Amino acid sequence: MSADCSSYVNADKVLVGSFSCPREDGEADAIYCCGFQDIKYCCDDPNSFFPYEHNYMWWLSIGALIGLSVAAMVLLAFLITVCVLCYLFISKKPRNKLDTGLTLSLEAAGTEVRRNSSS
């Protein structure tokens, strides 16, 4: 069994001619044409999409996990700081109003109005 890969233009804009799978210099069990429009290759699994090993994905996953962990710790520290500051602001707020030293009474205002109206 063999498969034919049609010609294509690769990412570098170079025309790659058509070829049959398996290739003479390739693996004998790579009988399928795999890949995309800009890269085609012979493979042994018709559901294969990438011509690379998947080991690099573990490094990306570990890096992403470390990055997400650091971001989560920073966010948690920020939230704890905001909660502590809010608690301190609320708990240290004075319960009664401060005495400004001025006393306002309606009686004094009423007396002043009466004086002005009688004159």
UniProtKB/TrEMBL annotation:
Its main location: membrane. InterPro entries: Shisa (IPR026910), Shisa_N (IPR053891). The chain crosses the membrane at residues 57-90. GO terms for cellular component: membrane. It is found in: Membrane. The keyword DNA repair does not apply. Residues 3-48 form the Shisa N-terminal domain. Keywords: Membrane, Transmembrane, Transmembrane helix. This is Protein shisa-like-2A.
